[in-house]
Amino acid sequence: MLTTVITICLAASNCASFNQAALAYGHWIKADQRARARVIAHYQPTTILAVGDMMLGRYVETLMKAYGTNYPFAQIDEFLQGHDITFANLEGPIPEHHQPTPNNVLRFSFPPGTATVIQQHHFSAVSLANNHGLDHAQIGYEATRTSLQQAGVITLGHPTAITEPTTIGNTTWVAFCPFCAGFSGDEAVTKIAQVVANQPDQFIVVTVHWGTEYQLQSNTIQQNLAHRLIDAGADVVLGHHPHVVQEVEVYNNRAIFYSLGNFIFDQYFSTDTQQGLAVTVTLNQQQVVYTLHPLISERSQPRLMTAAEADTWLTDLASRSPAADISNGKIILMIDRRSKK
Description:
10 helices; alpha/beta; 2 domains; Purple Acid Phosphatase, chain A, domain 2; globular; six-stranded mixed beta sheet
């Protein structure tokens, strides 16, 4: 269809009149508007920035009270700007009745105004499909969704239910929590197959909360499910929950990031829990480029690693990721959309 448009435009000077060419073009638009929209979606570059676990309660809240609500983002805010979609896993609720979470307590609560802070720092979508999403029961989950949506932040998923997909531009997002009670891998795979059948031209992003905490390598349960999701039609799998960065895999020409690690957290007890991975996903025609940005956090303030730090860190990640060539910090994949139809 794109070729047809170009032909009409170039042939306009040879028509009996330019108006005739314009009229022909208008008729074509009306006759094939839906198909043209799908073609244009492929040729519109889209950038996604994805980070891992963001926890804004407990000692992070203490720091924000002492130094201001912008404190966790002070060294990373500029990097978060300028993307079509900026995503994180929001590791906890924003309940209507907030009480600060004591240190070492695992039932999280984020203060009022958290949703606005998240939006002000350029996040457009967050996953609620994690094991802390129901820390204040279903009423807390609903309050979180309402607060975020009122602030203009898209919410994805539910801790214990498989929800409907969310379409953002030419991407469609599905969030699962395999770590949570009642999760069914079969239902998740079926859901992805349905999404692909209904939206074959969309770029399907699956975000999953899974794995074993503090382990640098994924387990076989993660691997098997990731492969099934890709086989069902997912274009990329973004993992979180282990609080450390796990390996990267390219399977059937699709990327799997088993765990992006912590983005903002108060886990200061190891080097690995204070390192994270941000991934920029650039969709351009049929090409997808993944750019890896290593992060280091100091007292819950993430920043980009220096070039020297990043080089050392990426070399280590590459040694743990034999099924992906990430030696230069990039993965470039050619996606054939027709393979999904």
